[in-house]
Design a protein that fits this description.
The structure holds 2 protein chains of 2 kinds. Chain A is α+β, with helices and mostly antiparallel strands. In chain A, 44% of the residues lie in helices and 14% in strands. In chain A, β1 and β2 form a beta hairpin. Classes of the chains: A alpha+beta, B mainly alpha. Chain A: It comes from Parapedobacter indicus.
Chain lengths: 91, 192
């Protein structure tokens, strides 16, 4: 089962930070307080959208064909995500 | 899924498919308008007459489409500079489809006679036939449904084309429809 990557705190809804990283091979652990990169702060659906956008060479037309959505629908989603990312950058 | 597509076809179909379907529907609707003596004399208007020429319903629809597209495009561009003309053309073409079904109710001049009968008897204080009343009520109900679907589709298409989210945009959209109705009515009366 693929677990959903948590981005927001389930208690207070604030953005989570990474406090521990570990090596799956030798069990080395790194403890600290690392802020999630902006792209990691997006929802899984938004990250999937960005991946699709990258794989289709940034062609919204091609993406609209692949996803079965109209061009303005795909463009609107991208515009909303750009606005959201700008908000995250300002935080 | 199919219900979802019908609720907002503009989110699912490519602009070329929507324009093709809309043009075909406009041609069929104009033909029905000619055959069933119907004038589309305004963006939100439709009247049955005693005689139409083949080009009258076609010109009516052309004027109505222009009167819808131009204000919606101007407003759309002011809301979002990425708004494309083709998306609003396809929106207007598809949204008007419900109106193209209405001429069928006047097959053989049925609705024209029923409405004339109602008006004449009412003005002369003569008894009004139950059939004429029922026909007019049924047509009014059908026309209301067509108008609701038209406005709903037009709004869905406008929202998809402009990515508008604010309540103010809804009011501006409403104002655009009223303006389109007034301009189209005046143009059709003077030109056609």
């Amino acid at each position: 089962m693929k677990y959903k990557f948590p981005v927001h705190c389930p208690s207070c809804s604030k953005t989570l930070t990474v406090t521990e990283l570990s090596c799956g091979n030798c069990d080395t652990r790194i403890v600290g307080n690392y802020t999630l990169p902006i792209l990691m702060q997006l929802t899984a659906e938004d990250q999937e959208f960005i991946l699709q956008f990258f794989l289709s060479s940034g062609s919204l037309k091609e993406m609209s064909v692949q996803t079965g959505k109209s061009y303005p629908t795909v463009r609107n989603r991208l515009d909303d995500m750009i606005a959201h990312i700008k908000e995250l950058e300002q935080k | 899924m199919k219900r979802h597509i019908l609720l907002n076809p503009f989110a699912h179909f490519a602009e070329i498919q929507l324009v093709a379907a809309g043009l075909l529907a406009t041609a069929v609707g104009s033909f029905l308008g000619w055959q069933c003596n119907t004038r589309f004399d305004g963006v939100l208007d439709l009247h049955f007459v005693s005689q139409t020429t083949p080009w009258q319903p076609l010109l009516d629809n052309g004027i109505n489409l222009l009167c819808l597209v131009i204000p919606l495009y101007l407003v759309g561009r002011s809301i979002n500079s990425k708004t494309r003309l083709i998306d609003l053309v396809s929106t207007a073409l598809v949204a008007r489809i419900p109106y193209y079904v209405l001429p069928l109710t006047n097959t053989g001049g049925f609705m024209h006679l029923a409405s004339m009968n109602l008006v004449e008897n009412a003005t002369k204080d003569a008894p009004i036939g139950l059939g004429a009343v029922a026909a007019n009520i049924a047509f009014a109900a059908l026309a209301i449904v067509a108008t609701v679907v038209f406005i709903y589709w037009l709004f869905q298409g406008f929202q998809t084309a402009t990515n508008s989210k604010k309540n103010l945009h809804k009011w501006i959209f409403g104002g655009c429809i009223v303006l389109s109705e007034v301009i189209s009515k005046l143009l059709i009366l003077s030109v056609n």
